[in-house]
Predict the 3D structure of the following.
Amino acid sequence: MNSQIRRLASAPLLRKSKPDSNDDGMDLFARALAAQKAKAKAEASAGSANANSNAPKKENQSKPDDLDLEEEITPEEEERRRRWKEQSEQAERKQMAGRGKGIAAVAAIALAGSYAYMGQATNEDKETGFSGHHNRVRKFLNMGAKSVVEPPSVKLLPDPLPEPYQRPYTLCLELNDSLVHLVWDKDFGWRIATRPGVNQFISYLSRYFEIVIFTTSQNFVAQPVIETLDPYHYVMYSLYRDSTRLMGIKHVKDLSCLNRDLGKVIVVDTDPENFQLQPENGIELKAWKGEEGDIELSKLMKLLEEMALLATIVNLSDLRPLLKSFKALSDSPSDPWSGWVARKEQLRADFAEGERRASNSGTSETTISAPAAEPSTVASLIGSITGALFGGRGMTTPQNQQPAAQPGSNVSGSSLKRTNLIDLIEHAGKEEYALFLKEQKEQVKQMEEAKKKHEEEQMAQLQAMKDKKLKLFDYMMGAGNEPPAAPAAAAPAPQQS
Amino acid sequence: MTGGRHDISDTSRDPCPYIIVYDIGAAFCMGAIGGSIWHGFKGYRNSPRGDRFAGTIASVKSRAPVVGGGFAVWSGLFNAGDCTLVAIRGKEDSWNAIMAGAATGGILAARSGPQAIAVSAAFGGIILGIMEGVGAMLGRLSSDSYKPVAPVLDLPAAPAPAANSSAPEDSAAAPAPSAPPKRFFQ
């Protein structure tokens, strides 16, 4: 018996039934029993027939097809097997149905519970009744859906700093493919290439603009990049993908949430769809994929510097008409420099015209009627300022040094040659940049010292926190967030508690 | 050569074709370690008293790689589906992951008939949906620590404006910005 079972275990499963019938091999075992009974019967009859047969029964030499499957199935056996199969299939179906019902019940309870929770009466909304409840549920779900799409608040940046520190204008820069390019290869993994001129760009323009890096990268990706790119914090603030507005699949930078006057904000991006809500504030930059010899950033730096100088001297309260005027003249949308050059020529000519008119109509006139068909605010402002501000005084450059006015002659505009405002800002920009380059080494040294001091302060703070021996519970209750208490205030506190 | 992703947004993952191989290995390791613990325990419990250590080892040796292999297959199919959907759709959002999870569940039940495929695909999609949702939640909660904070200025008269919200992680209390050059701004 044992040897036969062992033989069965090693025999291939000859299944005549369907593969997913779950009868646990009872079929095979029953068949084996029946086969054995039949063989015993046959041997008994054969043994009585040839009592001195000299064919020894070697059990362990019989082949697997000793299991005579077909001949031994009697009708009752058939019936029994069929009923067994039916029962097991039924039991299995009931079990699956039971499980399904259980899952459905749990899901129903969860849905009902969340419906009740979402529709709870809040302080603002105490409508009773089913419709009130349902409205609150809908409001809850809408808020959830909106929070994915909208920027987290309408004041993404802190309020502007007080006067001497706040730059007059704000510049929002994109990171990917504008300032840096991320590259992956098999040997080194992710690496970051910085665009030629990016360090000058950021450190120089921080004199004129409040630089904000507003990027569509995720925060955990972009923050280390910005840390490395800008170790001395020329960049005031950084905003990431979670501060953008999701429109379709595009992450759009919504400048109206920036908490800054929109007339004083410029956004620079490689993809104009990223500032589609305020296209008049945007400058498109050519994308950089890591190739050599890229000069876009230095051109943009010059453009922004001259624009900032012009806007500051003329005291422009809204940059957008100026942006529009030179973007309209560009050769292509991603080449703003050509447009700016063209616009400067126009302004230069307008200024010269204004000058001519001012000098022709004498110095008593303090205002100039702007020439007809003057499209831009800037040119008319230049015209009026010419007479008002510069009448009688010449702004001279080293190239245009005029001899001192003769005594007795009227200090009228006609005798002194006034410098064109555009020449002025170009010259001022060059001077300022040369100064910046000279000061750069000094500034780097100062920044290094400031950084070291800052790190030391942070270590001291960490040490102070370690000394206080706060546990996890204290952190959860907000213990680590207070500014370090003054010693005088801290002293009486332990005595009171 | 950069990988196939159009919008490189996540530098913690390798780009698309390579992430499949990387994640298969990672998933195998996870499954092998978890399976070792699970089946080691089971082998210990199910073996006779004198033979417990041998039983544990035998059980781990035979079953833990199988669990690891299962995880690896799941991860390989999922990443392949995800990369394919990103390439086809051209966008990168959570729907790619959810659909790839459903596809994985469906493919792995393909031998058991259409009903099993449907159930398995639903479960795969739901699991991935939950994972993506939790990931998005965590991202939103953690974005507080990246909020812009105003620098603390040493102003003589007025008290320093309070730096908002929680303890900033780094780069918040930067050295105070220098005043702009006075030459042209008067």
Q: What stands out?
A: The two ends of chain B are 52 Å apart (CA to CA).
